[in-house]
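Q: I'm writing a short methods note and want an example of a predicted protein-small molecule complex. Could you take the sequence and the SMILES for zinc ion and return the bound structure as tokens? Please keep the output block clean; save any remarks for afterwards.
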Amino acid sequence: MSLTDLVAVPEGINVLADGRRLQNAKQATMLALLGSPRADLNQDCQAVATPSLKALMVTSSVGPFRVTGLRPAVESLRAIMADIAAEQPAVYRALGSAGMLCVRYVRGSRTAISNHAWGTAIDLTIGGILDPYGDGKVQRGLVDIYPIFNRHEWFWGAAFSKEDGMHFEVSDGLIRSWLASGRFGSGLNPPETFLLSLGDRGDEVRYVQEALNLHEAGLLVDGIFGRETQAAIFRFQAREAIRLTGLVDGDTWSRVHVLRRDGGLKVLYADAAAPAVAQAKITPANKKAQAKPT
Ligand SMILES: [Zn+2]
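A: Understood, no commentary inside the block.
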């Protein structure tokens, strides 16, 4: 058995010891707290152009390799690497980086900005080998270390709708905690935690897409909040006679649950009326939904 052998994504990933689910950092959060890294984004790795964000970038060793990234993210990564060295020394010796800061869209998207663009995500190699993208399997060495990343409130990309096992990123909660402790200056207001907007991806987006399809929205349930999902949300909001935002805001989010309940779909995120998504307790149902690679 080698550290690069491919195995199934484990159940129950991206959950904290107290049962809270980690969420990947939402695009609305990143834009609100850090701004856009540059005006012209494409699929190529470019540099940060926005001066205020540039000032937050550092280049430094985190133990096994050097990275360039957002200062608090680099500090957090250094602490993670120290834990890996102590708890999983064999993996530590084989670890390499395929990059942290890289200003671009998510592969295959023209709306979703990769969190690498803010220097808050890292791609790892094991023995110089990248985990194959989107095959629903992950390298065994990554399974050994994901609990350490999760404990430090980093989200593992193995849970993305298109499995991205090599990828770890600062969770929505962690980036908000850096705001709260003044790491980005003062006077900023984070968006509501349950807000989903164009460019977001993940289980919550799938959850909304499934619900909208009950009204024959005809969406591909891919967990990616693209233009078609946005258009379907506008139509849904018009039908429900609520504010037309094209966002999954508080009103829309609560009506999505009603829609699912009426349509016979599972209702997850039980305390969904409030900013409770980030705090949602694991139930057997959403644990399964979260862990299932697609
Ligand atoms: Zn990545």
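A: Remarks, as requested: Confidence is low (pLDDT under 50) at residues 270-294. The radius of gyration is 19 Å.
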